[in-house]
Every structure is written in C-alpha cells, then in structure tokens.
C-alpha cells in the first residue's frame, strides 16, 4: 500500500485558474509546501514564497499532490518526461475540461485521480466546484479535495463522472450566461440615455442584489420571481413577453448545446 501523503502540493499551470487556486491554497497552507510550475518565468514571479520552476518535471518529482491547471491539449506533453513509476504514490487533481479520469490516468501514470470542475468565481472565493474521484482515490484523498476547495466557494461531490458534462453546462459556463443578461440590461439602460458608467452600475448592482437575496434567504429563484411579479404590473409585462417568446426553452436548448460540446471534447 503506497503512502498517501498530501504534504507538498504542486500546481501545474499559473494561468487564470491556476492563480485563482493558488490564492485558495495560500489561505490553508504555508507557502513553503506549495510548488508552482509554468513555462513562462514572468508568470511565476507572482508566487513569492512558493517553490517555482519552469520545468514541470522538477515540480512533479517534488510533490505528493499535483493540481493540473494547464489546457487540456497540453496534458500528454506535460508528462512526457515523467516516469510512470515516479507517479505511483501521487494524487492528481485535474480541472481540465473534458479530460476523463481514464485519460488522466493514462497520461500521467498516476493511479489516484480526482477531477474537479470549478467556475470563474473561484477567483473571489465564490466559485461553484463539482468533483469526482476514481476508485483508487482514497477517503483521505477525497477529504483533502473537499478541504482544499472550501476557501474557493461552494463544493459538490458528483455521483458519477458522466455528470461533469451537465455540470459544465450549468455551473461551469453559467457565469457567462449571467454576464450576457447583465450586458442586455446595460444596453437597454444606455438606450434610455443613462451614461455608460451608470448603465453598467445599474445592471451589475441589480444582478448582485438578486444574487444576495438567493444567498441570504431560503427562498428559491422561482419564489422570489413570483414575489416580485404583481399581476399586470411592470415586471409581469416584461416576464410575460419572455415567456411568450420561449425564454426557458431557449435557455434549455442553449445549455444542451454546452453539454453536448463538453461530451464532444471528452470523446475527442
Ligand atoms: N476558465 C474557466 O472558467 C475554467 C473553468 C473550469 C475549468 N477550466 C480549466 O482550467 C484549465 C486552465 O485554464 P486557464 O484559463 O487557467 O489556462 P491558461 O490561463 O492558459 O493557463 C495555463 C498555463 O499553463 C502553462 N503551461 C501549459 N503547459 C505547460 C507545461 N508543460 N509546462 C509549464 N507550463 C505550462 C501555460 O503556458 P502557455 O500559455 O505559454 O501555453 C499557461 O501559462 C483548463 O484546462 C480549463 O479547461 C477553466
């Protein structure tokens, strides 16, 4: 039985998501146990205190836990110079969209692999992250992932790997749907003569205020929508137009496309 330690934590890829994860890791672990690799030396300058290298192999060799924050197409070549034997005792945690547990095991040579699907808001500790591990990942590995993700926002364990495609369509791509809605509110406010700055604020603050109601109360979105919609009032005039034009169906179709695309990427 290999030792299953989680002492030295290596982050491969110091881009958007890698940096966001590093901030979460720093709130839990001292920088001496954190290792970061990226091929761009200038990106590594931001990780003061952590061990850094432009050479992936050095960081992989040094760590018990390897967090993959590279692009999916960089997976295989990132492990080319790493021997499968040296991966035997290591835990891989991957956020690579569409990279299956089987592909991750094959590419890295590691046995214990856990996939996570975060969204962009992990950058501000308000992310939504789903995870699922393979059979070789231990109870301790799973507890480690839950602990590691906690400072980054909400964390949900999936029941099976195939749920990643739907999670990607809902919480992974989801922030962009809300940004798009916010853009539509802004465009209308500008058409009404508000300055760009005020239009942006009115729209963004409205999204934040609605989100705060969902976060700080037990009422669902539907309950709040009904509460704010008086019959034949102003909100009713807007929402009945959306309903008559198939808003819910259109969103469902759009998200089905996101799910299908995730399936395609997984099978590519
Ligand atoms: N953005 C999201 O909302 C989101 C959500 C869920 C999951 N993800 C996943 O998160 C992962 C990372 O996304 P990201 O937006 O953070 O990507 P990114 O900004 O491109 O960061 C990846 C970094 O890793 C570096 N890199 C790649 N291969 C390397 C190697 N072999 N050695 C050293 N450095 C290497 C890249 O360098 P170069 O740029 O020079 O290649 C880049 O700096 C992706 O797999 C994505 O599917 C993203």
Written overview of the protein:
This protein is of the alpha/beta class and 268 residues long. The chain has 2 domains: 9-164, Rossmann fold (3-Layer(aba) Sandwich), CATH 3.40.50.720; 174-267, ProC C-terminal domain-like (ProC C-terminal domain-like fold), CATH 1.10.3730. It has 13 helices and 8 strands. The protein has helices at 16-26, 41-44, 56-62, 75-78, 84-87, 101-108, 139-149, 163-172, 174-191, 196-216, 221-228, 234-244, 247-267; strands at 9-12, 34-37, 51-53, 65-68, 91-94, 112-117, 127-133, 153-157. The protein has an 8-stranded mixed sheet with strand order 3-2-1-4-5-6-7-8, with helices on both faces. Helix 6 (101-108) links the parallel strand 5 (91-94) and strand 6 (112-117). The longest helix is centred in the C-terminal third of the chain and has 21 residues, at 196-216. The two termini are 34 Å apart. The protein binds NADP nicotinamide-adenine-dinucleotide phosphate. Residues 13-18, 37-40, 43, 56, 69-72, 74, 78, 95-97, 117-120, 172 line the site of NADP nicotinamide-adenine-dinucleotide phosphate.
Identify the strand order in the major beta sheet: 3-2-1-4-5-6-7-8
End-to-end C-alpha gap: 34 Å
Q: Which structural category do the helix and sheet elements fall into?
A: alpha/beta
Instruction: Give the H and E element order.
Output: EHEHEHEHHEHEEHEHHHHHH
Sequence stretches where pLDDT stays below 50 over 5 or more residues: none
Text of the CATH class of the largest domain: Alpha Beta
Beta-strand segment tally: 8
- Contiguous helical run count: 13
How many structural domains are formed by the residues?
A: 2
The CATH topology of the largest domain turns out to be: Rossmann fold
Helix content: 40-55%
Bound molecules: NADP nicotinamide-adenine-dinucleotide phosphate
Beta-strand percentage?
Answer: 5-15%
User: What is the general shape?
Assistant: elongated
Biggest sheet overview: 8 strands, mixed
């Amino acid at each position: 039985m290999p030792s299953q330690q989680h002492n030295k934590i290596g982050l491969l890829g110091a881009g958007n998501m890698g940096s966001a994860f590093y901030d979460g890791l720093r709130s839990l672990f001292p920088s001496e146990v954190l290792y970061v690799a990226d091929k761009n030396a200038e990106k590594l300058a931001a990780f003061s205190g952590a061990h850094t290298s432009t050479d992936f192999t050095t960081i992989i060799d040094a760590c018990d836990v390897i967090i993959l924050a590279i692009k999916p197409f960089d997976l295989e070549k990132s492990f080319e110079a790493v021997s499968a034997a040296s991966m035997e005792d290591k835990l891989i945690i991957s956020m690579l969209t569409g990279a299956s547990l089987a592909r991750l095991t094959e590419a890295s040579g590691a046995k214990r692999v856990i996939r996570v699907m975060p969204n962009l808001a992990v950058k501000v500790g308000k992310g939504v992250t789903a995870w699922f591990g393979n059979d070789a990942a231990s109870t301790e590995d799973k507890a480690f992932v839950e602990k590691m993700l906690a400072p980054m926002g909400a964390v949900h364990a999936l029941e099976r790997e195939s749920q990643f495609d739907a999670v990607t369509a809902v919480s992974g791509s989801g922030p962009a749907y809300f940004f798009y809605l916010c853009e539509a509110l802004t465009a209308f406010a500008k058409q009404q003569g508000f300055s760009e700055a005020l239009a942006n604020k009115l729209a963004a603050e409205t999204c934040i205020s609605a989100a705060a109601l969902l976060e700080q109360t037990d009422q669902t979105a539907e309950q709040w929508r009904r509460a704010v919609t008086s019959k034949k009032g102003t909100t009713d005039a807007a929402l009945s137009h959306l309903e008559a034009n198939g808003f819910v169906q259109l969103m469902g179709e759009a998200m089905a496309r996101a799910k299908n695309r995730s399936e395609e990427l997984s099978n590519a």
